[in-house]
Specification:
- This protein has 177 residues and is of the alpha+beta class.
- The chain contains four helices and eight strands, in the order βααββββαβββα.
- The chain has a four-stranded antiparallel beta sheet, covered by helices on one side.
- Strand 3 and strand 4 form a beta hairpin.
- Helix 1 packs antiparallel against helix 2.
């Protein structure tokens, strides 16, 4: 892709936890710490609060760490990368569609990054003969925007590959003549 051509629409989101899940997790940790505190009086009474509450915050932060992005001609899901040129099709899914794709008849070779608190998802069908993975299923809060962005990146990657092939064939033909 040349510097003067417009880049496809970039997409970025983080699959963080909703506020109510943070509240629930911290309430459960505080309740557990209080139960331990009541059973272990003395100098160590503060220890359950000092250990359980920060551990819960760290665990909840870890659960919400996943980032989804379409940039530089690839789909990035946490540390996994998929070049857009290998995308055959992208299908936005609602909660029922995600349940159907990941249900009883799902493919065990599919790459899945699913967060139950995110209702939407995207199914990315692959076109790579060297990869046994038939498709990716990725949770997304904005599946239609992710679909549009990934399809635009795919089209830009294929247009760039076609332009590079045409330029190379013309250069070879000119060089041999």
């Amino acid at each position: 892709m040349s510097p003067s051509s417009p880049s496809p629409a970039a997409h970025s989101e983080r699959l963080g936890l909703p506020w109510w899940l943070w509240l629930f997790g911290l309430a459960v940790a505080a309740l557990l710490a209080a139960e331990i505190w009541m059973g272990a009086p003395g100098m160590r009474a503060w220890l359950p609060f000092a250990v359980l509450l920060p551990a819960t915050v760290a665990g909840l932060a870890w659960l919400g760490r996943i980032r989804i992005a379409v940039a530089d001609g690839e789909l990035r899901v946490d540390d996994a990368r998929l070049p857009a040129r290998f995308v055959a099709d992208v299908i936005p899914l609602d909660a029922a569609g995600r349940r159907e794709v990941l249900g009883v008849g799902s493919d065990p070779l599919a790459f899945v990054v699913q967060r139950p608190w995110v209702p939407g998802a995207v199914q990315v069908v692959l076109d790579d003969p060297a990869d046994p993975t038939p498709f990716w299923v990725v949770s997304s809060r904005r599946p239609v925007e992710l679909t549009d962005s990934l399809l635009a990146a795919r089209d830009a990657a294929r247009a760039g590959a076609t332009a590079g092939t045409d330029t190379g064939s013309r250069t070879g033909a000119t060089g041999t003549a």
